[in-house]
Structure formats: C-alpha cells, structure tokens
Specification:
The chain is an alpha+beta fold and 362 residues long. The protein is built from 4 helices and 24 strands. Strands 4-13-16-15-14-17 form a 6-stranded antiparallel beta barrel. The radius of gyration is 37 Å and the shape is elongated. It starts with a strand and ends with a helix. It comes from Alteraurantiacibacter aquimixticola. Belongs to the membrane fusion protein (MFP) (TC 8.A.1) family. Pfam families: Beta-barrel_RND_2 (PF25954), CzcB_C (PF25975).
C-alpha cells in the first residue's frame, strides 16, 4: 500500500476556492459532503484504498465462556478433615494429580467391616466343605450341607460389598484418602483449607477442562438474518510482541430466533479453540466470516477513527480532507476492512488524524 506525505495549503487559505489552490482546476466535492479542513503546514501521510475479496459480514463483541461439560466438581466419598492441600486456584493439573489429603472416620469402620467379611468367608468355606463331606458319607442329611453352602454364598456377597466400599473410599488403614483430579485442566475453585472440614455434600475443588471455549455474541439487527450456524468466526489475540496479534478460529453454533426489544440485538453462541491468553469471562471482538464472497476495500487501521460514535476516515478531495462515515467489518494485522462508505482508489489520511478531527469540528 502506497504511503506518501501530503502538505496542505499555505497559511490563511482555510476553506477557500479549491480551484485556485489546484492551479485553476476545479475540485468536485461529492454531494452531501462539505469542504474539509485545511491545515496549513501540516504533513499528512496518505494511503489508497485497495479492493479486497472475501469481506466478512462484520465484527461484533463477545464474551468468552466455558461449555457446560467443561467443569468437573471433585467431592470426597466421606466427610472428614483436610490434612494437606496440594493445589491453588488457577494451577494447571493433569488427570490423576493429587488435590488434597483428607482423613475421615467412616473409612476406618469400612476397613474393619472388610476384615470381618473376609474372616466370615473363611469360616463359611470351611463349614461348607465339612458339611458336604459328612453328607456324602451319610452322616448328616444333604439339607444341612445345602444350608452351609447358602451361608457361604451370603458371606461372599457381604465380602464383595465390603470390597466395593473400600475401593470407593480409596482410603488407607488410618482413614486417609487422596482426592485426585478426574481430568486435565485448570483448578478453578479451591473451597477448603488445611485443617478445615471437608463436607461430602459440597465440592472442595472444581476443575475446568482445557478444551474449546464458547463465545456469547451480541449480533446487531442488520446481521440477524445473515448469520447462520456453521459460519466461520475469528478472534485476534494479542501476542505481546510489537502489537502483533494471533488469529484463533471457530464457528457459529446457534443463533437466537428473536431480537431483544431493548438492545435490538440477537444473541448467538460460537465455539472457538483454546489458545494462550484466552480465559473465561474475557471480552473479545469476533469477526464473522460468513460465506466469504463479499467485496470491499482495505486501508491501514490508523486511517479509521471514531466520530459521534461511528467509524470515519478522512478522504482527500483536492488539497483538503473531509470526514466520511464508513462501516468497518474487520480490523486486524494493521489493516481495516471496510464494507461500505469507501471505494477502491480513494485516498485517505493515515496520520495527523487528531488534528483533522479537531479542525473538522470547528
């Protein structure tokens, strides 16, 4: 894109006949636009608007959130006391990583029940074997051997239940149990302190998965009928290096069927991949690509400014510049994509924008 300095008229010739200023040739000002400001002695860099294809539908505000399945609560099987807490909020954890060591009284009784069940199975096995032998020798009735076999089956069932409870508790002989992360992700909530109680009805830990995020979008009324599920979206995240950004892509998941009567906007949801610097609750600007078959122009981002709540550029007319409202649909990588208000070939100011705004307001 061509960048060149442009000097305005000499002092004292503000908003005078442009024909005399341009060597006798009359400069035509488009209908509906007033002659722009003329700042003497001010060097202004300019750029020519270039035609571009695949203009997105628009850029809208959005807020990053987590999908419903991304949060997992970690609860202990039994209430107890936290002996040690191993993590803090915001810490990254892998699946199976220890979160806390908890000691409870109930697992101790479970261990005792397990020991008794094992002993009862041993006794029932020995009695059943003895009764079966006596019945085979005709010393006792077979019914008594059958009763002993039934008692053995009952003892084995009790042992299996005790083993299952012991496995669920995951406790040691002293009733201690280690709470572990069920997924890889980030610790979003720590609700227990060392020495504090751990209630089996409340989750002392919440883990957030590190997968894709959701973005809640607010579509203006003009885009309500154009945006459809499946359309591509893009978010530009700052990299922290010389103002550079990194694009993160996703797609529209759903669009609300009605318009909010107060905001005159439509709510939509999009999915976007995880990326460094992207966190839940963050406000971002989302570019909706749509079908990618639109046309428009691109200019340096420095050419665009806000006047009266709308985007404007200062377009050169002869030796002066005039503000013009434009519709910016994307702004990334130092380039602003304009869908309406500017055509290819027109020249806009890319520097001294503050001075131009001040002069145009006089």
């Amino acid at each position: 894109m061509t960048m060149r300095p442009h000097a305005l008229l000499a002092p004292g010739l503000l908003l005078l006949g442009l024909a005399a200023c341009s060597g006798g040739e009359e400069t035509t000002v488009p209908a509906g636009e007033e002659a722009g400001p003329d700042l003497s002695g001010l060097a202004i860099e300019t750029a020519e608007a270039r035609a571009t294809q695949g203009v997105p539908l628009g850029t809208v505000p959005g807020q990053v959130s987590l999908p419903p399945e991304a949060r997992v609560a970690v609860t202990p099987p039994f209430p107890g006391a936290a002996i040690r807490v191993y993590v803090i909020e915001g810490q990254a954890v892998s699946r199976g990583a220890p979160l806390a060591l908890v000691r409870a009284a109930e697992p101790v009784s479970i261990s005792a029940d397990l020991a008794r069940a094992r002993s009862q199975v041993g006794l029932a096995e020995a009695r059943s074997t003895r009764m079966e032998q006596l019945a085979s020798e005709g010393i006792i009735a077979q019914a008594r051997a059958d009763e002993a076999a039934a008692e053995l089956q009952q003892a084995r069932a009790t042992l299996a239940e005790a083993q299952r409870m012991a496995a669920i508790s995951g406790t040691g002989p002293d009733g201690s149990m280690t709470l572990r992360s069920p997924i890889s992700g980030r610790v979003a909530h720590v609700g227990v302190e060392t020495g504090g109680p751990v209630d089996g009805m409340e989750a002392p830990f919440v883990i957030e998965a590190g997968g894709p995020f959701r973005i809640d979008l607010q579509l203006p009324e003009r885009l309500a009928r154009q945006v459809r599920p499946g359309m591509a979206v893009e978010v530009q995240l700052p990299t922290g290096v010389d103002g550079q950004t990194m694009p993160v892509g996703g797609q529209i998941l759903s669009v609300a069927p009605s318009i909010d009567p107060q905001t005159r906007s439509v709510m939509a949801k999009a999915s976007i991949g995880a990326a460094p610097g992207l966190v839940s609750g963050q406000n971002v600007m989302v570019t909706i690509s749509g079908s990618g078959d639109g046309t428009g122009v691109s200019v340096p981002s420095t050419a665009v400014t806000r006047i009266g709540g709308e985007d404007h550029v200062f377009v050169r007319h002869g030796e002066s510049f005039m503000p013009r409202a434009v519709q910016v649909v994307a702004n990334a990588g130092g380039e602003a994509v304009i869908a309406e208000g500017l055509v290819a070939g027109e020249v806009v100011a890319t520097s001294a924008i503050t001075e131009l705004k001040a002069a145009s307001a006089e």
